[in-house]
Specification:
By secondary structure, the chain is mostly helical. It has helices at residues 21-35, 37-43, 50-70; strands at residues 2-4, 7-9. The chain starts with a strand and ends with a helix.
Length: 74
């Protein structure tokens, strides 16, 4: 679900002619992953203190920096 000027747009997938429902569900899941809809929803389920938010973001930044350093071309 995306918000644009206080209006919400649901993510949708049109079922193609002759397409199995399972494949359409798989496409929907991939689309939700790309938009990070489920991740944002799970983060907003409960209140996160500003200090915990800062700590989580710093941890993610440290991890990304470690991966970047590990796989950097020397």
């Amino acid at each position: 679900m995306r918000c644009l000027n206080a209006q919400f747009f649901m993510t949708e997938v049109k079922l193609k002619k002759g397409e199995p429902v399972e494949r359409a569900i798989r496409r929907l899941k991939k689309k939700l992953d790309r938009e990070q809809t489920l991740q944002r929803f799970r983060l907003r389920r409960r209140f996160e203190k500003p200090s915990a938010l800062k700590r989580r973001k710093e941890k993610a930044a440290r991890f990304a920096a470690m991966l970047k350093a590990r796989y950097a071309d020397d």
